[in-house]
Amino acid sequence: KRPAGAPDRKLARPVSKVGVVGAGLMAGQLALLFARRLKVPVVLTDIDQDRVDKGVAYVHAEIEKLLGKKRLSQDAANRTRSLVTGSVSKDVFSDADFVIEAVFEEMSVKKQVFAEVEAVVSPECILATNTSSLSVAEMAADLVHPERVVGFHFFNPVAAMPLLEVVRAPTTDDAVLATAFVLAKGLKKNAVLVQDAPAFVVNRILGRMFGEITAVFDEGTDAATADDALRPMGLPMTPFRLLALVGLPVGQHVQESLHAAFGERFHVSANQRTLIDAGIKGLWVKQEDGTETVPEQTLALME
Ligand code: 3HC
């Protein structure tokens, strides 16, 4: 059955090579998913060779883990490994049909990346963004072909989360959208069509939860106590465990976008900013015996 709002799949274009801009954690997860599920060459790029090498090494390490868990056959592992390559030059995208960016969550950076990619790809090549909260329309606005841009928003951890938000900007072409839905099916994700609104749907809802719990901390309630109080509520992860998974800076960006759009409904936390500036990755730290505690240093920063 065609997902609500998806154009006829007959409009979809074939995708036989994928590009991923960025070689960070999200980009690595995407490269692995595309190569594993679509079985097409995937090339990832970043600004220096070290980052590229780390991105490819991450993919190789994840393939080893899947092999170890017998989730991947030896043949599939070999094939997936050989399909993923890296480069510092975006020229490798010249014959790509679909390029997705997963770079720093900043509009000017995303716009520059898209302009650079557009300069090397064919006019039909689709440009997708994995942005969590920024306007897809604005990202497309200065391009020669804004109709080729679509939002393709995955959730962490990419391999485990079934949802994919497909974001239609007012300029997005039907053929581009149809291709996005066909790709999503190949990736075994449940794609839903969402409008180009700040933080789309899921992060907008999560933003209310993150905003409230960080407001509680900012007002002086013990962070660990408040977070742990939510453990029996049936959530797969408590808010601060989830924030550590998505990354405190990404969470903060989402919150800032929502605050800019909707004001005080979305609290932007001073404590969270302090933790980010201090390089703290998450509230909870696992001890050797498996229990989790919040280090004194973290608590002191939030006083
Ligand atoms: N990478 C790959 N796979 C992972 C993984 C990871 N980091 N973590 C867990 N998995 C897989 C496991 O391999 C396992 O797969 P299998 O059943 O096929 O073997 C499956 O997920 C379940 O894992 P576990 O049994 O080990 O652990 P849990 O049952 O505790 O589930 C979880 C782990 C799926 C991460 C679960 O805790 C969960 O759903 N958490 C909520 C995650 C969430 O809400 N993510 C969205 C965040 S918002 C976001 O990303 C948007 C962004 O824009 C900010």
UniProtKB/TrEMBL annotation:
It comes from the Bacteria. Residues 17-196 form the 3-hydroxyacyl-CoA dehydrogenase NAD binding domain. Residues 200-280 form the 3-hydroxyacyl-CoA dehydrogenase C-terminal domain. Belongs to the 3-hydroxyacyl-CoA dehydrogenase family. This is 3-hydroxyacyl-CoA dehydrogenase. The chain holds residues 330 to 632 of 708 of the full protein.
